[in-house]
Amino acid sequence: MYRRFSEWEFDTNGITTVVSEWGDSDRYAVLLHGVSGNRHYWSDLAPRLVAEGWHVFAPDLRGNGDSRVTADDQVGADIQMYVEDLRAWTSELGLDSFTLAGHSFGGRLTVDFTAKYPDAVNKMILIAAAGPDALEDVARQHPDLVDPGGANFSELSEIEGHVVDVLRRLRERQPDRPATRAVMRRWLENLEIEPDGHAKHIDITATSAAQMNIIRTEDQTPLLADLTHPTVVLRSVDESPMLRYVIPHYDDFLPHATFIDDVPGGHDTPTAAPDYVLRAFLD
Hints:
11 strands; globular; about 280 residues; alpha/beta; 8-stranded mixed β-sheet; Rossmann fold; 3-stranded antiparallel β-sheet
């Protein structure tokens, strides 16, 4: 018997951070979502990790999901705000040593957290991580890698209607994303839903823009030379051109890292290819 699922709220650095928990062993894993995501992104994978003996925690990063910000100075303008949020609630729970896994922006946060608190992390898993380079520098050098469309998060705030119609519109925006329970929960978490079923997408423009700015402007390569933690890096075969180019740079600075390069699907590896993420934990 084990406690299957719990939720926590923590007052951390001027915001409320909400964290989901699965399992009850002393083998800890912390999972970090990417831009516009939330803790429900991991709701399919987490029970599978518990079945393999892991005790799993997944937060809503500040400005995402239920960890919403209410003022401009609460938006995570630099990566260290997210690092200290993570440090605050893991310390309060007494998580002294854990495997830290991050997807996309969460992968970049994984590296920055480990660099500042190396004793807290026993292994890094970088899942389609948005780094390590400052992407605007790469874009200047290789303009052919830039996606001319890019992500327009402000369009999401314009989506409203009956909740079923809203989910359909979100599905139409990303037809290649698998329609798993985790994806549905992630979308629902980003909606304000009234009793009559009317739903409106929460405006995440400020948060997403801040996180994207970190990815574009912050170069984390100087941090990598001192990291000797066991590391697994996952890259999908259909990743965006920019990330297909930069993700292998982790190998330049983390020569001990293990690369899993045959991951099927696009950027949404945790939901599109959960078996490969599970493999990274078990290797």
